Amino acid sequence: xxxxxxxxxxxxxxxxxxxxxxxxxxxxxxxxxxxxxxxxxxxxxxxxxxxxxxxxxxxxxxxxxxxxxxxxxxxxxxxxxxxxxxxxxxxxxxxxxxxxxxxxxxxxxxxxxxxxxxxxxxxxxxxxxxxxxxxxxxxxxxxxxxxx
Length: 148
Known about the structure:
By secondary structure, this protein is mostly helical. Helix content is 68%, strand content 0%. The chain has one domain (2-144).
């Protein structure tokens, strides 16, 4: 049942992304082109998402637990560290250059457009590369720690 619900939620999300035009990189790039062909519609899509999320969290978190889990898994880390800021900056630059965010690119994969495929391949490579580097750094720090 969990897999079916996950699929349905993904289809609803993807449909919303496509219907709002956010799978079209030109629309996204025009949002960032304030001095040129600025298209403010992305702000309305994001505003609607923020309002929906705000209300959804208020409603859902009134429940004692999620339907398919024992407890809610809410992040406890509220620090703004360099990993978060750097990742957000890289995400924003990539979004502005390519016109895709992961949420828009994954539904657009169905178009088999080579730009989308290239973006998703670069996204996967970036995720795997980052994981590799972070694991190597953690292993190096662990090996340099003095024995107690």
